[in-house]
TrEMBL record, chain A:
This is DppD. PROSITE patterns: ABC_TRANSPORTER_1 (PS00211), ABC_TRANSPORTER_2 (PS50893). It is a peripheral membrane protein. GO terms for cellular component: plasma membrane.
From TrEMBL, chain B:
InterPro entries: AAA+_ATPase (IPR003593), ABC_transp_ATP-bind (IPR050319), ABC_transporter-like_ATP-bd (IPR003439), Oligopep_ABC_C (IPR013563), P-loop_NTPase (IPR027417). Residues 23-272 form the ABC transporter domain. One of its GO terms (cellular component) is plasma membrane. PANTHER family: D,D-DIPEPTIDE TRANSPORT ATP-BINDING PROTEIN DDPF-RELATED, TRANSPORT ATP-BINDING PROTEIN. It is a peripheral membrane protein. This is Putative transport system atp-binding abc transporter protein. The keyword Chloroplast does not apply. One of its GO terms (biological process) is peptide transport.
Length: 324, 346
């Protein structure tokens, strides 16, 4: 676990995102220490990808509020597009869920990596080429020179994802956003890619935000976990606190759905996330919560520390009127 | 139950033949030669299935597990009679599957399928009610007057909201679309349900809802279930039996719990180790990549990545052979229950 006094590299305050009448992110606050890995977890539609995409400033057609202070870069949400262009790929980069569609099908993967290296680091053609081969080697691509001239469709899903990792890490970013980098892949490949991302970010001292569905994988790969429900942070803290000493009923529900090998009993939750038009004004989980009290649907619970005196950025917080 | 080589030789007086039986099934596709030029149009044979042996009894639940490209979907197409195998025999209740399928609607009614791409398998212009009524009509399951009631029953059984009948697939979530696909599959009152990655790509909550549904269907209706997945947690929750595939061949079969507790094949052990477990360090992955089926290693097809490979592994191709109660493994040096390798070769 990280030292409590480590400087945050990213401090996200009250990020809200509106699409039409729907508030798909509601005052999301979180911070990330230097060298830390953080998992965003939650049901489909919770807003995990929206957070990552908002940080990259790649959200379109949405109204964004709040601030995202990144050390040495300023407020990511307030920078001009010209300033963002300089940051993307260099100080922060993103790995998308579906590498197949994130890569350009009409260029070889070598050319795509070389373009990134030349544009962002100003390398000569020959320098970029040898650096590209080094990067392919470091992400475990066999025959890196031969693979340089492959088109994305000629590579397996796992190989495409390795290429994405190489491109994302090409310029040694300080912050890597990985949106479900492995959910389309087999478990054996998943383990390879997650290990690869961790090894590569750790060796560079970079921080990483993982969007994950799998809580067991989150526990294996991340220092901290942020649990989102319907666009709000409902619980956040060190991975062990979240998985073994969680206070929010939704975190408990998520955990009870996890299938480890040998699990014969799971409690499937009732119902689904309500549509934004029918979202309770109070606790958004109230329509499905087994512990709901009369006040819950009308009054939104604030995030509060799980332990007395726990107010540092790395500490365990939850938002619930009737916690576990 | 899955039977190994020796068990399949039971007397022919056995009361009922298994629902499915595959005997040395091969499926060879002809593909362009790799690296061919414009002038060279030669093709080569790609064996997507290579000597598959499998028996699925009435009421069994079987998980078919393996990495992408191991041949799971190809095997499914053979089971469904969509493709005739290029070699070996594929039987449904003792008769060749293709014949059974050609002979009227009995087979199609009895063996229902849930496809991986549930949304793509549904006509977007039809309402959920029409989609579920379609197989009812096609197989003449109920009289016209009872159709609406049966549709409502199916909608309720798979946990869709009552008003779903009048909605279109485009207005449904990923989990709901899969429920529609399951309702359609159940409409013909099948005894066998075959599903390809029916819960993958869904978030854990929705996945849990569908898995509890599938398990209760299997138990209440005595369905025979063939379930393709690459998630061992899903396999262990839903299926009593497991068959693990690698490069077109079944390398280990047996009761799911036994196989996952004490895998005998080094590949099964590697899959098991790679499955996420709370707070355990992520283990060292298998080295290298899955070879192309066009370029199989000599001897054992797993030998290029096997951490337990020995010299003879490059020389002999191990066949699926019995390994303890109800289990079978294709390995020259299977792991023992302590995880160590057996000393003598087989
Ligand atoms: N382009 C868009 N237009 C309209 N609504 C959108 C758009 N993208 C996302 N949303 C909505 O925003 C909310 C959050 O979506 P987001 O993609 O961030 O969820 P997620 O947590 O990443 O889910 P998943 O696990 O399915 O990837 C959802 O209600 C979604 O329907
Ligand atoms: N119609 C086809 N023509 C040529 N090759 C095929 C065809 N279908 C499958 N294959 C090949 O057969 C192998 C097994 O494929 P598949 O059954 O789809 O695997 P899985 O479902 O386990 O991912 C792969 O190498 C695949 O490329
Ligand atoms: S605030 Fe109330 S409804 Fe919300 S999670 Fe807590 S107990 Fe449940
Ligand atoms: S036969 Fe040899 S190479 Fe093949 S799985 Fe067994 S030990 Fe490994
Ligand atoms: Mg997403
Ligand atoms: Mg497949």
């Amino acid at each position: 676990m990280k030292d409590m006094v480590t400087q945050p590299i990213l401090s996200l305050r009250d990020l809200s995102v509106h699409r039409g009448a729907a508030k798909i992110l509601d005052r999301v606050t979180l911070s990330l220490a230097e060298g830390e890995t953080l998992a965003l977890v939650g049901e489909s539609g919770a807003g995990k990808s929206t957070i990552a995409t908002a940080l990259m400033r790649l959200l379109d057609g949405a109204k964004v509020e709040g601030s995202a202070e990144m050390t040495g870069a300023g407020d990511l949400l307030a920078l001009s597009e010209r300033q963002m262009v300089k940051l993307r790929g260099r100080r922060l980069s993103m790995i998308f869920q579906d590498a197949g569609s994130a890569l350009n099908p009409s260029y070889t993967v070598g050319r795509q990596l070389i373009t990134v290296l030349r544009r962002n680091l100003g390398l000569s053609k020959a320098e970029a080429r040898s650096r590209a081969i080094e990067l392919f080697t470091s992400v475990g691509i066999n025959d890196p020179e031969g693979r340089m001239s492959a088109y994305p469709h000629q590579l397996s899903g796992g190989m495409q994802q390795r290429v994405m990792v190489a491109i994302a890490l090409a310029c040694n970013p300080d912050l890597l956003l990985a949106d479900e980098p492995t959910s389309a892949l087999d478990v054996t490949i998943q383990a390879q890619i997650v290990r690869l991302i961790l090894a590569q970010t750790k060796s560079r001292g970079a921080s990483c935000i993982f969007v994950l569905h799998d809580l067991a994988l989150a526990s294996q790969s991340c220092d901290r976990i942020v649990v989102l429900y319907a666009g709000q942070v409902v619980e956040a803290g060190p991975s062990r606190d979240i998985l073994e000493r969680h206070r929010h009923p939704y975190t408990k529900q998520l955990k009870s759905c996890v299938l480890e090998i040998g699990t014969k009993d799971i409690t499937a939750p009732e119902g689904t996330v309500p549509p934004h038009s029918e979202m309770p004004v109070g606790c958004r989980f109230a329509t499905r919560c087994p512990r709901a009290l009369p006040r819950c649907a009308g009054e939104a619970p604030p995030l509060q520390p799980a332990r007395a005196g726990a107010d540092g950025p790395l500490d365990h917080h939850f938002a619930c009127w009737n916690p576990e | 139950m899955i039977m190994s080589q020796t068990q399949t030789k039971r007397p022919s007086t056995a009361p009922t033949p298994p629902v499915f039986e595959l005997i040395e099934v091969e499926q060879e596709f002809s593909v362009p030669q790799p690296g061919r030029s414009l002038f060279n149009r030669d093709t080569v044979g790609l064996k997507a299935l290579d000597g598959v042996r499998l028996s699925i009894a009435q009421g069994a639940s079987l998980a078919l597990v393996g990495e992408s490209g191991s041949g799971k979907s190809t095997l499914l197409r053979v089971l469904l009679g969509l493709d005739a195998p290029s070699g070996g025999r594929a039987l449904y209740r003792g008769k060749p599957i293709r014949e059974a399928r050609a002979r009227g609607t009995g087979f199609a009614r009895d063996v229902a399928m849930v496809y991986q791409d549930a949304r793509g398998s549904l006509d977007p212009r039809m309402t959920v009610g029409q989609l579920i009524a379609e197989p009812l009509r096609h197989f003449n399951i109920v009289r016209k007057g009872e159709e609406a009631a049966r549709v409502a029953q199916l909608i309720d059984r798979v946990g869709l909201p009552t008003d779903a009948a009048s909605r279109y697939p485009s207005g449904l979530s990923g989990g709901q679309v899969r429920r529609v696909a399951i309702a359609r599959a159940l409409a013909s009152e099948p005894s066998v349900l075959v599903a390809d990655e029916a819960v993958s790509g869904l978030d854990v909550s929705t996945q849990a809802q569908l898995l509890t549904l599938l398990r209760s269907l299997q138990r209440d209706m005595g369905l025979t279930l063939v379930f393709i997945t690459h998630d061992l947690g899903v396999a262990s929750y839903l299926c009593e039996e497991i068959a693990i595939m690698y490069l077109g061949r079944i390398v280990e079969t047996g009761p799911t719990d036994a196989v996952l507790d004490t895998p005998a094949h080094p590949y099964s052990a590697a899959l098991r180790a790679a499955a996420p477990r709370f707070f355990e360090p992520i283990p060292e992955p298998l080295p290298g990549e899955i070879p192309s089926p066009l370029d199989l290693p000599n001897g054992c097809r797993f030998s290029s990545r096997c951490p337990a490979a020995q010299e003879d592994c490059r020389l002999r191709d191990p066949q699926l052979g019995q390994q303890g109660a109800g289990r079978a493994v294709a390995c020259l040096h299977p792991l023992t229950s302590t995880g160590a390798q057996a000393s003598e070769t087989r």
